[in-house]
Amino acid sequence: MNTLPFLDADAVSRALRPAEAVQVLRDALAGGLAPEHDLRRTAASVASGEFLLMPSQTPSAAGVKVITVAPANPARQLPRIQGVYILFDADTLAPRAVIDGPALTDLRTAAVSVAAVRDVLRARPAPLRAVFYGAGPQAAAHLRTIVDVVGDVASATAVVRNPAALPSGHAFDDVLRAGSPEARERTASAGVIVCATTARVPLFESELVADDAVVIAIGSHEADARELPSALLGRADVIVEDVGTALRESGDVVMAVAEGAITEDSLIPLGPLVRGEAAVRGDRPVVFKSSGMSWEDLVLAEALLGRSPQPGS
After folding, report:
1. What was the pLDDT predicted at 1?
2. Side-chain-facing half-sphere of 233: CA atoms under 13 Å
3. Angle, nearest 10°, between helix axes 101-123 and 137-150?
4. What does the pLDDT look like over 227-273, one tens digit per residue?
């Protein structure tokens, strides 16, 4: 009996560089993949948290990510998010591989973000100053991906509620307290701002964001939680993976529409943007609001398996 391949976090890191993951996603969209046809994820509550189930299918594969969210785990010195990805054959639905879920999530979330704003970031004047609200795995993954795709950044600043709690050996040049004058100054001068928090209310005012800044918001996927103020979306080009998904799940978008700051028609879907059928205007901030969609995991899971050494090879 053949052993089902398992790709752990190290195998994921070896198989695909961040820049390669960005290109894999862009190639899938350029080839006609339609995010609006993706299967919806579902959530199921359990006593200690919840399960998130994210299924998807393409002509060549099918898969599902099973992620657990346990809010009490950080106090136990355990990860808040854990899980696995199971990749299946498209026709027989036989399992082909199991992949470390958090490692795949870190890779794909940052890759989707940079896939959406790659051309804008490359067009911005150097040196690029980056500010990260949050300093967890997703913030670090976004820093790695930005550096791999755009080149070295002039500075990478993390803004957190308690700088003293950040362990040594982190990836950032410096760490500032949220709301401090220094954090506000860095935010105002940033070329790219990444929001990767569990905040449910805006992290900063619209006025702090420069007209040529890129803002990536990935922390919330609930209709009543947001990291960005409506006023910022109202003065920005707003990119989303899929309009329908954003209007269901992305509180930053849902509330900005409800408050009249933006309209559904003003949203720029990722697929048409990558294929050159839509474009940003270039005279205002660019916001990418990510929901996190199942097709992204599947496309990268298939690429990871294809680039990983197989047993007996």
Report:
1. 45
2. 31
3. 40
4. 999 999 999 999 999 999 999 999 999 999 999 999 999 999 999 99
CA pair distance 243, 226, nearest whole angstrom = 17
Write the pLDDT tens digit of every residue in 28-45.
Answer: 999 999 999 999 999 999
Q: Is 53 exposed, middle or buried (0-12, 13-18, 19+ CB in 10 A)?
A: middle
Domain ranges of the chain: 6-104+295-307, 114-292
Do 257 and 289 touch, CB atoms closer than 8 A?
no
Task: Give the number of other Cβ atoms within 10 Å of residue 296's Cβ.
Answer: 31
List the one residue out of 308, 306, 311, 312 whose CA is nearest residue 61.
306
CATH topology of domain 114-292: Rossmann fold (3.40.50)
The dotted CATH code for 6-104+295-307 is: 3.30.1780.10
Check residue 135 and report its DSSP letter.
-
C-alpha 292/C-alpha 304 separation (Å) is 18
